[in-house]
Amino acid sequence: MRGLYIHIPFCKSICSYCDFPKRLCDPKLYDKYIQRVIEELDYYENELKDIETVYIGGGTPNAISLEALEMLFKRIKPYLLNSKENSIELNPELVTEELCDLLFDYNFNRVSLGVETVDPESIKILNRHHDKETIKNAVHLLRYVGIYNINCDLIFGIPYTDLDILKDDLDFVTSLNPTHLSCYSLIIEDKTVLSYQVEKGKIEPLDDDLCADMYDFINDYLRKKGYKHYEVSNYAKLGYESIHNKLYWEEKEYLGIGAGASGFINKIRYTNHRGLNSYFDEFLDDCETITLEAEKNEFMMLGLRLVEGISITEYQKRYHNSPFDDFPVIIQLINRGLLEVFGDNIRIPENKLFLGNIVWSEFV
């Protein structure tokens, strides 16, 4: 199985916490950028034969014009018609009836809405621009045209929040009955507006212990609401796990198209230029052939993000050796209570997932 990721870097405004490749909207660049993306797709034509998932992310894909989006959709229509899952990220305040019609016409069957929070003060801190009504309207429009597989992104650990505010966010978003939820702990990334505000003492990060309590609260809350916790930050109704994202965690192949996108094809991992001018001149910024040792490490590190962990049998099938022999540290982590063997799987105990960085770092 192979996935296709396409990055749209344009945004109406820049969120305070975002360090993804992005830039403010410039309508003069939409067509030029999409044409360059199409050129890159043409370049990888021979690698696009086995595409089974399509994911368009950003940035804010629905910040650009419908005409530019349709130009892209026409080029990738063969993959959209034959893949198992076609996803696109949307900001709720920019969802329109015309956009939903376009997505349905091109066989998009999954949408990820950037909800993040509905707390008014938190929305200001994150520099988001929606409210409860715009989110409800976006969900209504998507379902009206026949797109029912809807993920909602949430962010917790926002400065000055508490468990009550988190519960209000969860109460609201689960009242919409999405099929999937992604809940991310706020990370203050370097060179973001939020990191500058923290450095200047304008904003104080939330206490780590409270963030851990929030994570435990989310896991318990969503389990009671019928969501399966299947990856450290992801929860799904039965049958609605993200097929595309599991490609990453299961060390399978995917093409990354667009400025700042990354891909993993034929044992080669590559990253495109982030800046538009550089991307217009040349796609690739960096690429490397992944050694067997590095692939094993990635298999462990990425697979241990999944709640079920990694399959011992699958590891032996791929690498013709035992993970315990290749990684003696596994026994040490088991003795520390940070890993456990459950049937055929090695996994992080669910109550230790918030400490996952300690485990993953052992396989870098």
Order of strands across the main sheet: 9-10-8-7-6-5-4-1-11
Number of distinct helices: 15
> Rounded to an integer, what's the Rg over CA atoms?
21 Å
Q: Please identify the top-level CATH class of the largest domain.
A: Alpha Beta
Number of domains: 2
**Any idea of the CATH topology of the largest domain?**
pyruvate-formate lyase- activating enzyme
Alpha carbon gap, first and last residue? 25 Å
Mean pLDDT: 96
Task: Give a structural overview.
- The protein contains 15 helices and 17 strands.
- It has 364 residues and is α/β, with parallel strands linked by helices.
- The protein has two domains: 247 residues, pyruvate-formate lyase- activating enzyme; 73 residues, Orthogonal Bundle (Arc Repressor Mutant, subunit A).
- The strands form four sheets. The chain has a nine-stranded mixed sheet with strand order 9-10-8-7-6-5-4-1-11, with helices on both faces. A three-stranded antiparallel sheet has the order 12-13-14, with no helix packed on it.
- Strand 12 and strand 13 form a beta hairpin.
- The longest helix has 17 residues.
- It is globular.
- The two termini are 25 Å apart.
